[in-house]
Amino acid sequence: MKKVAFLKNYQLIFALLLILFIPAVLLLHNYYFVKTVKSNMDTEFINKGALAVNIVKNNFVHQWPNYSSIQSRIDEIVKETPEIKSLDVLVPEKENFKIVASINKKNVGKILDQTLNTIAWKEEFITFTTNSSSDSSDQSLQAGDYQSDYRYQMVVKVLKDTNGRKLGLISMKISLAEVDNLTQSLINRSFWTLIGIIVIVLLMIASNFRLFHYVMLFQKLKEVDQMKDEFISIASHELRAPLTAIRGYVSMLEEDETLQSNERLLKYVVPIKLSADRLHDLVEDMLDTSRIEQGRIKIDSKETDVIPVINEIISQFTIPAKEKGLEISLEEPSEEVKSARVMVDVDKVKQIVINLISNGIKYTPQGYVKVVIEIKEKNLAIKVKDSGMGMNAKAREGLFQKFYRVQNDETKKIVGTGLGLWITKQLIKAMKGDIYVDSIEGEGSVFTITFPLIK
Ligand code: ADP
Fold first, then answer.
1. What global pTM score does this model have?
2. Which residue among 102, 184, 246, 445 is least packed, with the fewest CB closer than 10 Å?
């Protein structure tokens, strides 16, 4: 169950992937960067090696076979190019090769029988990289100036005279220490950058751990909220049918002549009717709430003259208002109002005005409830005024919130759900209208609803 909830949380998975993705991209980037630099530098050094061989060859061919002047030229070249770690000039002698000039003067006169030289004699040019001092590529390097941590570019080249006759071999080792040091420092730098990024990401994860927890919690709450909405919707529907039956039978009982003459039974019927009506209002409010929350409310707007609609509602409320000793009226509308039309859903406007007038009656102990229709700029304004208990500024703040009820000694005695004004506001919003309230505590309230006029 937990696993499913986690997988459903795409945002969380996305965030985690992003966290892994950033170091991975950096790692790949660094890897290719180092690789490219290394290969570029290798090529550079191979070229450098080839160039050095050419310089050496050009210098040596002119002096051939004056080995002592070749030897002194070698000393000069090595001084100018410290990367050259080994340089031997060899001539074929019987089956082998003899060193006739070398960086390491002790090697002069040594006979070498390495196959490498034999191959080079045939192939004319050999080059490769090595980091071993013990393989056949090693010619005359001595332990002190050879560091096996670094790589060397080995070059063996045939020396020819102007007629193309083979004279001897030049064998060189050029140090790649510079490129290797640079590569190593790049690798080290990218390694520490990566470690730094991983530490930052881990710190971010640690500091946002709560956030992840809240995201999961929010997801869970959303699911629970949805379940609650579905439950309210189903429960309200199920309550509706038996309630309709109860209310139907209660009104039949009220009209029954035998019951009218039986005062004792009549005393029982009145509270049953009141309770059933209250329950009916509650169920209807709950159904409206769940319809609005699930976006299932349908608005069927058409051009409407609101005056007859309001007149009809006022006549519905005449008896209940009178029973409470209140006056209820619609102030004579102006000619301008009479000709005004708005785009609204008539049933929804009825529901809204019924709610405001019934509130007016409910929260007015004495005096009046009056409806006034006016034109206000480009809107039609329907005002429901009462001379009731009113409310202070603080109470007005939360007035259109769900389940909000003003809490004071007077309202305590009046039953209600706190859903009516919230539903009213949502319906008005769905018809592109507006609602606001003016009220003075102890003097009365004015609820104004506005709808854009049709030009
Ligand atoms: P209910 O009437 O069921 O409590 P409503 O959403 O219709 O719920 O109203 C919310 C609250 O606003 C009421 O509890 C009441 O305190 C206050 N109220 C609404 N209409 C009036 C009014 N005409 N005069 C004074 N208070 C009102």
1. 0.59
2. 184
